[in-house]
Amino acid sequence: MDRLIVGDCLWRQVVRVLEEERPAPAAAQPLFAVFRESVDSGVFVGLATAHDIMRHPDWIFADLTGHRELLSVAPDSSARRALKMMDQHGLDALPVLEQQLFVGVVTRQSILGMLLQREHLLLMESRELKKMLDVKHQQIFSWSEKLAGSHEASRSLLRVLAHTSVQNDLLQTGIEALSKLLEARYGAIGILDESGALKHFVYTGVSPEQVQSIGPVPQGKGLLGVVIQENVSLRLDDMTKDPLSVGFPLHHPPMKTLLAVPISHHGRVYGRIYLCDKEDGEPFNKNDEELVFSFAHSLSLVLDNAREMEEIKQTRQSMDYMAHFDALTGLPNRTLLKDRTEQAISHAQRNGGMVGILFLDLDNFKMVNDTLGHTLGDVLLKKVADRISDCLRDGDTAARLGGDEFIVLLPDISDTQDAAKVAGKILESLMLPLDIDRHEVFVSISIGISIYPDNSKDMDGLLADADSAMYHAKKLGKNNYQFFTPEMNSSAQDYMKLEKHLRRALEQNELELYYQPQVDIETGLIIGVEALIRWFSPELGLVAPADFIPLAEETGLIVPIGDWILKTACTQARFWQQNGLPVRVAVNLSGRQFHRAQNQQQSRHPLLDAVLDALDETGLPPDLLELEITEGILMQHLDTTMEILNTLKNIGVRLSVDDFGTGYSSLSYLKRFPIDTLKIDKSFVNDISTDPSDKAIVAAITVMAQQLKLEVVAEGVETEAQLEFLRELRCHYVQGYYFSKPLPADEVLLLLQQGKYPWQWAGR
Ligand code: C2E
Ligand code: MG
Ligand code: MG
Predict the structure, then answer these.
(1) 238 and 345, same domain (yes or no)
(2) Which of 237, 184, 188, 255 is nearest to 217 (CA)?
(3) Residue 658 CA to ligand 1 centre (angstroms)
């Protein structure tokens, strides 16, 4: 505030009078400015106060002014100076003259009044200032809070930037920070997808349910649409009338003010951000817009970056794809095949496994291609590729080397015949015509097979072997497969032949059950017989079970065959029983029969069904049936195995463990199963008289089995010496050629009738 000067403190109640005038009694206490000649333009001669007038009621003004010195101050003199003069001269008022001209009067009171007024003003001002300061302080405070928020927002933005792809949660953090910063009630970020549709949204201030009901997001209609279409920001102070016209969907929460900013970079729009309704009800201002704009800009950089990375990734992927896959068929190419073959070889090397390579070449492709034209030729190759792939299991690889040459890699086969089976399957699958441009086209293929480690040890060698085998197949009239190793071919052929014949064996009654007696060592009585299957094939002659049971298992034929065995054995035992010769019959079960999957229509496991059916149909008492299972079967699928065994046991069927000692089960383990009999494998019995360790094993098994209350049957007893040892070891039951070979049922009947070893007639 400026220095207080006299000019500012003029006393208002000054009455101008002429010097010859006589003062009239005054109500208030005015001051009289006395002039000579004229009150307006005359010479100022002095001041007279009410007090002067009271002291000299008879004097005229000239008398009152004349007796005192004329003191005055200039208007620009300081009020302090005026007060000082008044003090010095004992005055309460001073005239204010400027170059002899009367300007006014200054009094103690007027100066005081002015001072008070000034003080009041100052007070007001400082109050105002304080208020302002308070506001400023508040502002600073909230800004610092906002800054902290914005710091957070920019941190989340940085986090967004650190990512090369924009994930939802990052966008979510971004919009949340942004709306917090601007105190907006709602906010959303919408990102355009590849096709330019606004599909990707994150919201804040809107509940998930609301998001749900907002439903299909606005498709860039109304004013909001302009933000994206024209890449411009939008600020609206009131859109209560019609939010739809702005571009909001029907179910968006009501709102009034809006700030929408495009997310764009170099003219490319990636989406938009919008914020609605500030908490304080104020519209969004320019600063807000700039802030959101800079956020959007940064976001656009991230999105731009992300898109670029995505493009690079895709290009890289497609380059990678091109480097490893055949463009026409989509099958792996030579490079990828090499990779996988090498892996398969080193795996097989470590595990002592086998790898199969099939070299496939379409027969007469050149002719087909010329007839169809190249385009349809390509279609054909694609379809052939599909057929080949359909014949493979997971883990196998079909590759195309180019032209009409394909390779199949079988990385893990347990038998060379596995490769033959796949080759056979492929040949068979190509027997059906291909639909090429609505024409039926027949193709065939020639296949050469090589096997690691039997043939070459590396991929190039294996390919060359398979290739030359393939040529061999072509020479043999095409549409067939050939192994590189000639012996493999003959065994493959045998295998195929076997399978073909086995399929018919059951229907054509080529199967028969033989029975081998099990004898009590002390009494020579037959305690049971083991049913052993025989296949008399008109084409192949007598086929041993060891040669066709595995094939029957593989092809699933074991299921009908197994059912037939059960029924036949039970019928036979029932017949003997009905003829007064009750003897228990032991039936061998294969793993496949045991672990057949139970389908939903079946209330029982299929094996239980088969056993119960056989017992029901024949009327054989269950305790005359014994089921032989190997240790291997026992150890697989422990839970279901245990369940089945318990059920069988409850039915009353006897259970025995076949070939005991060749597996890994311990006797104590066996205790957990409801087993009745152990059959010591013939390999131990074989050397019992010569190999002390075999003798020890048989002794141990016998002793422990007796402790576990299990019966023990020694298999494969062929000699007197073996028998003696077994007798010594207190093994009570024996089975083997020494007593009898497996015999047809009618011959067994004769033995049963004789009842006791040594029988007079020792069979075939
Ligand atoms: P396995 O169950 O251990 O049957 C005993 C095998 O030893 C029979 O061979 C039998 O003829 C043979 N054998 C008996 N006494 C002697 C002997 O003193 N010396 C020698 N060297 N061998 C003797 P087979 O009949 O050829 O059966 C072989 C295997 O085939 C059986 O072994 C069994 O695992 C399986 N098998 C046989 N018949 C069936 C059947 O009906 N169903 C199922 N699933 N498998 C069967
Ligand atoms: Mg057996
Ligand atoms: Mg056995």
Answers:
(1) no
(2) 188
(3) 10
Whole-Å CA distances, 103 to 76, 96, 680: 11, 5, 145
Q: How many domains does the chain have?
A: 4
**In this structure, are 207 and 85 located in the same domain?**
no
Work out the mean pLDDT of the chain and round it to a whole number: 86
Among the bound ligands, the one closest to the CA of 656:
2
Task: Report residues whose beta carbon is within 6 angstroms of any ligand 1 atom.
Answer: 516, 531-533, 544-546, 549, 565, 588-590, 628, 658-659, 682, 715-718, 736-737, 742
Pocket test for ligand 1, best of 588, 627, 677, 687 (most atoms within 8 A of CB): 588
Interval between CA 667 and ligand 3 midpoint (Å): 17
Most confident of 6-20, 204-218, 392-406: 392-406
What's the confidence (pLDDT) of residue 219? 61
Are residues 611 and 518 located together in one domain of the fold?
yes
**Could you tell me if 568 and 533 are in contact, meaning their C-beta atoms sit under 8 angstroms apart?**
no
CA-based nearest residue to 417, from 344, 349, 487, 504: 487
> Taking a C-beta distance cutoff of 8 angstroms, is the pair 88, 95 a contact?
no
Which residue's CA is the closest to the ligand 1 atom numbered 15? 736
Among all ligands shown, which has an atom nearest to the Cα of 739? 1
Distance (angstroms) between ligand 2 centre and the Cα of 658 equals 5
- Are 579 and 720 contained in the same domain? yes
Confidence grade of residue 498 (pLDDT, cut at 50, 70, 90): confident
Q: Which residue puts its alpha carbon closest to atom 20 of ligand 1?
A: 716
448 and 513, same domain (yes or no): no
Does a structural domain hold residue 671?
Answer: yes
Closest ligand to Cα 592: 1
Give pTM, 2 decimals. 0.51
State whether 354 and 436 are in the same domain: yes
Domain boundary among 56, 86, 114: 114
Which residue's CA is minimally distant from atom 8 of ligand 1?
A: 532
CB 655 within 8 A of CB 629: yes
Which CATH number belongs to the domain containing residue 348 in this structure? 3.30.70.270
Order the strands of the 234-236 sheet from edge to edge. Answer: 198-204, 184-192, 268-278, 258-265, 234-236
Q: Are both 648 and 512 inside the same structural domain?
A: yes
Residue 106: inside a domain, yes or no? yes
The alpha carbon of 715 and the centre of ligand 2 are apart by a number of angstroms equal to 9
Residue 132, in any domain of the structure: no
How far does residue 760's CA lie from ligand 2's centre (Å)? 26
Together in a domain, 61 and 189: no
Q: Specify the residue with its C-alpha closest to ligand 1, atom 45.
A: 588
- Residue 658: in which H helix or E strand, if any? strand 654-660
In a domain, 596, yes or no: yes
The CA 331 to ligand 1 mean position distance, Å, reads 47
The residue segments making up the domain with residue 453 are 334-484
Span 648-686, pLDDT tens digits: 999 999 999 999 888 766 666 678 889 999 999 999 999
Q: Which ligand is nearest to the CA of 743?
A: 1
Helix (H) or strand (E) holding 584: strand 584-588
